[in-house]
Specification:
heterodimer, A: Alpha-Beta Plaits, 2 domains, 6 strands, extended, B: alpha/beta, Aspartate Aminotransferase, domain 1, seven-stranded mixed sheet, three-stranded antiparallel sheet, 12 strands, about 15% strand, binds pyridoxal-5'-phosphate
Chain lengths: ~160, ~400
């Protein structure tokens, strides 16, 4: 038997672990881990495995914007229709329905400011039901999905402590 | 001028650590993977650190009452009641100390008359024997063995009891073996104690929260009929990853706590005030962190057990603390030779078992208070090393 939550926590922090390693860590068999991973995928709980990359340290030029979108809900379809439409764009990395002053929060990645601006003015603003948008450009990433970007990993402990 | 002969006999008589040479070597070498560290690799949880910082911001920079702030004692009392199901009065039955270490020393000084015997269960934490000797007591050793899962056997304990026996020091979950004593194991020790009504027990429970088979700590204090003769030494170093804060506590019968408080009052005054504020938060909000750290240790523990199996080393399955204590017998090297050669050849530091008592010879202590990455690499190198040893590569 595999403890589902324990397994999820483990691979949330390190998606690179292979089933054999996971099996040892959880005190179970490789077969059980594989079966559970498959079940989690089938049930739509595990959506995929990605890598956290600090693009700022590469030569790739890119900008990330957080775009607030205010909507008027559409009859019978609520906000889902527009949200689903916006999700069709590959450069929309995330899309959330949120409470507060606006309704959708998009995380949008593109090559430069101009591209972001044209996405907002040409693709979002004209949509029926969109009342207004507000775009925030990300200037610096301090922490991404639980990972602090400037980590201090030094171990100041003595070599031997009884 | 050489003053070494001016040092008191009792201090002179305590030998320096058995593994001094190994220590020096390990500390000199660069790029060493260390599985030889008896303290958590985790940094203290942020909310606990913040509570310490806030106490400074608020100006709590003075002495606390001798026994510790009442709010800190109340927090400890509540925690022990929740986790052990045993009650201690914050007024008079709890003393906050500078780590569990101070507690061990205080108890020795409070209880021992010169020549009194103290039973020590080896292999064990190095301070037990020394604190007894410094207090003019006579350490009497009971050895534990892997065939008994390194648990204290009641008949072996009883065989060492004389009319000079003052107390027994029991340290489970164990540094260095990782052994635990369950409630059932302890009940047999309690039977021995019931036959000897003058003997006390010092129960060192520093690792109590790091128990991978029981959900709640088991302790001799949970037996109502002997509770009064058990002094619990506990603290925050291991379970809350707070070694540098130097905070622990002593719990016990009112008269005994009054006696240790008397020594503490003159020798220490009070434990660090900032740390006392931090532990209130640790006990209030920190237990979920303890669980998280414990899960992580447990993963590493299993990786170590598998790694030792793959390397072909025999090891009893540790259930607590963050140590494994495999046997290296039959490989032609003493514990110290094994660790020294392993360090020189593979750049991995582990601790020779004889550091924890003579019966630790033939074993090594491997700490898994290290990152999974370090553990994986160290285990690969250990397997290589054992294989090479068996092929006779390091024969003198
Ligand atoms: C078994 C045991 N008891 C007590 C201590 C002392 O801990 P502290 O003084 O940090 O509370 C240690 C530290 O290594 C230990 O391993």
């Amino acid at each position: 038997m595999v403890n589902r939550m324990e397994l999820l926590k483990l691979i949330k922090n390190n998606a690179k672990l292979c089933p054999r390693e996971i099996a040892v860590m959880l005190g179970t068999t490789e077969e059980d881990v594989q079966a559970e991973l498959k079940a989690l995928s089938d049930e739509g709980i595990i959506l995929g495995y990605t890598t956290q990359i600090n693009w700022e340290k590469t030569e790739k030029e890119s900008v990330i914007a957080m775009i607030e979108v205010k909507l008027s809900p559409m009859r019978n379809r609520g906000y889902d229709h527009i949200a689903n439409l916006l999700c069709k764009y590959d450069k929309v990395a995330s899309c959330y329905l949120v409470s507060g002053d606006y309704d959708l929060m998009l995380i949008y990645e593109d090559d430069n400011l101009r591209e972001v601006a044209s996405f907002v003015s040409e693709k979002i603003a004209p949509l029926e039901g969109v009342l207004s948008t507000k775009t925030h450009f990300i200037l610096k990433k301090y922490k991404i999905d639980g990972i602090v970007s400037d980590r201090n990993d030094n171990d100041d402990r003595q070599t031997v402590i009884l | 001028m050489d003053y070494s002969d001016k040092i008191s006999d009792v201090v002179k008589k305590v030998p320096p650590s058995a593994i001094r040479r190994f220590f020096d070597l390990a500390n000199e070498m660069k790029d060493v993977i260390s599985l030889s560290i008896g303290e958590p690799d985790f940094v203290t949880p942020w909310n606990v650190r913040e509570a310490g910082i806030n106490s400074l911001v608020d100006g709590y920079t003075h002495y606390s009452p001798n026994a510790g702030y009442i709010d800190s004692r109340k927090a400890i009392s509540k925690y022990i009641s929740d986790r052990y199901g045993v009650d201690y009065d914050p007024n008079g039955e709890i003393l906050i100390t500078v780590g569990g270490s101070e507690g061990l020393d205080l108890v020795a000084r409070a209880l021992i008359n010169p020549g009194d015997e103290v039973i020590i269960v080896e292999p064990c934490f190095v301070a037990y024997k020394a604190t007894v000797a410094f207090a003019h007591g006579v350490p009497v050793v009971v050895e534990t063995k892997p065939e008994n899962d390194f648990k204290l056997q009641p008949e072996e304990l009883e065989a060492k009891i004389t009319d000079k026996t003052k107390y027994i020091i029991l340290g489970y979950p164990s540094n260095p073996t990782g052994a635990i004593m369950t409630k059932e194991d302890l009940s047999k020790i309690r039977d021995v104690l019931l036959k000897h009504p003058d003997i006390f027990v010092i129960s060192d429970e520093l690792y109590a929260e790091l128990n991978y088979v029981e959900d709640k700590p088991s302790s001799l204090v949970q037996f109502e009929d002997i509770k009064d003769r058990v002094i619990m030494i506990n603290g925050f170093s291991k379970s809350f990853a707070m070694t540098g804060w130097r905070l622990g506590y002593v719990l016990g019968n009112r008269s005994l706590v009054a006696a240790v408080t008397k020594i503490h009052q003159y020798c220490i005054m009070c434990s660090p005030s900032m740390s006392q504020f931090a532990i209130i938060d640790a006990l209030k909000n920190g237990l979920s962190y303890v669980d998280e750290m414990k899960d992580e240790y447990n993963h590493r523990r299993r990786v170590i057990i598998q790694g030792l199996k793959d390397a072909g080393l025999e090891c009893f399955t540790p259930s607590g603390a963050f140590y494994a204590f495999p046997s290296i017998k039959g490989l032609g090297l003493s514990s110290e030779e094994f660790c020294e050669t392993f360090l020189r050849e593979k750049h991995v530091a582990i601790v020779p078992g004889n550091a924890f008592g003579e019966c630790g010879e033939g074993y090594v202590r491997i700490s898994y208070a290290a990152s999974m990455e370090s553990i994986n690499t160290a285990m690969e190198r250990l397997a290589e090393f054992v294989k090479e040893l068996k092929e006779g590569k390091y024969n003198a």
